[in-house]
Amino acid sequence: MSALTPAAGGLRGRVRAGTRHDAWPLAIISIVVAAAAAAVLQLAAWVNTVDGPVELFFIVGMVLLVWAAIACLATVIVLLRTARGGGASAVVTAAAVAIVAVTATLHPLLGSGGATG
Predict the structure, then answer these.
(1) What is the rounded CA–CA span in Å between residue 114 and residue 117?
(2) What are the CA-CA distances from residue 63 to residues 24, 47, 69 (Å)?
(3) Are the C-beta atoms of 69 and 37 separated by less than 8 Å?
(4) Nearest to 94 by CA among 72, 63, 116
(5) Could you give the residue ranges of the DSSP H alpha helices within 2-116?
(6) Closest CA to 65 of 5, 105, 15, 23
(7) Global pTM?
(8) How far is residue 65's CA from residue 59's CA, in Å, rounded to a whole number?
(9) How many beta carbons lie within 10 A of that of residue 34, not counting itself?
(10) 57-115 confidence digits (pLDDT tens)
């Protein structure tokens, strides 16, 4: 019997089974917070061109970036401790880690391009 047949639950059943474990909420939180951090830091870069309150946006963006990294780390720990499959969470967590890495590279805390104005 194929995994896509209605008797086996089909694709919908496989997706539902892949997201029913402890790491799924953490994975969603990590990618949402990482995307918010990237958006706020990019907003800080745009506001910087018009002499706005760039410091506030930069601080909020960095705080969100740190929380996204913590959520990614927690998700990886839960995925490593979970015996059940967590393929969907692993993909979402990998995307969140990529967002955090690119955002930290584009908006460094110190050095050239950092918040040293």
Answers:
(1) 7
(2) 23, 18, 10
(3) no
(4) 72
(5) 10-18, 23-48, 54-81, 87-106
(6) 105
(7) 0.72
(8) 10
(9) 27
(10) 888 999 999 999 999 999 988 888 876 667 888 888 899 999 999 998 888 877 555 55
